[in-house]
Amino acid sequence: MTVVADTSTLCYLVLIGYPELLRQIYSQVHVPETVQAELLHPEAPASVRDWASRWPNWIQVHHVAASDDAALARLHPGEREALLLAASLSAEVVLLDEKAARAVAAKQSQRVAGLLGVLAEGSHRGLVDLPAAIDRLRQTNFRASPKLLREVLRARAEGK
After folding, report:
1. Does the residue 11 lie in any domain?
2. What residues pair up with 95 in beta bridges, in sequence order?
3. H-helix or E-strand containing 132?
4. How far apart are CA 73 and CA 102, in angstroms?
């Protein structure tokens, strides 16, 4: 399965202690160079910079050519390039969390998953303690409504 990730999923998985989860679920993940640069940015959390400085071999970094697509212009560079890379690779899934990027992906008929979906899948496979992971996520600056977090936990408890 071809999977492309933007910055947020990788960043938060590192912050909550599950940096290998994407490898365990997807084997290999593709990212644009911009995502790598964002993870290494001096303002990124130290643990994220440290992880990204020892880039795992299951992540393939790609150069992405610029686009004049107006729908992409309003997105952050990592999101924009992740969508472009997903299209160029005919990716089955693009990992995005930001609402605007997810809306553009939907208009392009790209299948989207986000951090919570990745954690739920990891839980389903027995790789993640979902309540503990969400508790750790609440200690970061990840933005999700309390209602959404409760729904993810409830769905997992019901075996969905």
Report:
1. yes
2. 5, 113
3. helix 130-138
4. 14
Confirm whether 9 is domain-assigned.
yes
Q: Which of 9, 7, 65 has its CA nearest to residue 40?
A: 7
Q: Containing H/E element for 144?
A: none
Distance CA 107, CA 150 (A): 28
Handedness of CA 21, 30, 118, 114 (dihedral sign): positive
State the Cα–Cα distance between residues 13 and 114, nearest whole angstrom.
Answer: 11
pTM of the model: 0.92
The string of pLDDT tens digits covering residues 24-77 is 999 999 999 999 999 999 999 999 999 999 999 999 999 998 888 888 888 999
CATH number at residue 64: 3.40.50.1010
